[in-house]
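Today's session is about reading a structure prediction critically. Students often jump straight to the picture, but the first step is always the sequence itself: look for stretches that repeat, for charged clusters, for runs of hydrophobic residues. Only then move on to the predicted structure, which in these notes is written as discrete structure tokens rather than atom positions. Here is the chain we will use throughout the hour.
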Amino acid sequence: MYDLNFAIDMIEEQLVRGNLRWLANFSEIHKDYKIGDVTFPLYASGSLQEKGFLLSRIFSALVTPKYKIHLLIYTEQNFDPKLIRKLVLACKSKFGSEDWVFLGLVQREDFQKATKEAVANTTDRNVGVVAYSLASKERVTSENVLGRGLAKQLRLTEAKFEVFDLPNYLKSFTITFFLVVLFLVFLTFSGIQNIVNPLSILIAIVVSLLVGHRLYKNRYHTALSIDAKGFQLWEGKAMKEGKWADFSDVAIYITPKRETFLRLYSKNGTFDLPLSRTGLSRKETYMIIRNLIKGGKAIQ
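Below is the predicted structure for this chain, in token form.
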């Protein structure tokens, strides 16, 4: 079950980080949410209303529909049309007729033809369904606006985490700006008069902003992708990867610069996964990866 639980953990992490805000502003998350005799491992509720600056709230109140939004995730070894209909009806009976319901289904085995048809033929315009198979990596969506919208935003079994790293971007900008200014000084010593002036400095700043960003993305930007089998870590264009089954333990590691990492232990040594530079929560990520390592060892 660890791979199904991983899917739930990753969706919860995406909700907490606001990665699904293009669907709705989800403000509440419930675990093991019961509707009748059905228990959904994860349920989130929210709305389309903005909660930012005053002007945003005013615009939202005047223009944005006041629908309630519900996201429910259900996992199963193998879905059948009867169970899918039961889940849809459970949602319809619980929530208002004008509410929007997003239903995510994650199953371990390959899809049966009847399951695909049951998902695709969901006709209720207020219920969007996306089903995902862990075995085949196949995804099926209901043929309506909500289903297609959920499919674009929800990543059921893999999550990629990255944040803009301002210190490293400033480093890239400084390097670029220094080289541009050095070039201007070289031109001055080469006999070109008045090349260093306010306009050239302004151009140097603009060039440094653009080229510095490219340098940052190619060399310093950190991104971490996690799935049930392992991880991929990008530092610029360089990529490293590993499998949870190769590691035996995990610990939280804090560097002298107060950066936080997860240190993975294996027979060949240690490997550090960055948390601070990817914007990940220390506690939740530690628990998720510890369980993944245990799960990986269990299936060896």
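Discussion point for the tutorial: Confidence is low (pLDDT under 50) at residues 52-64.
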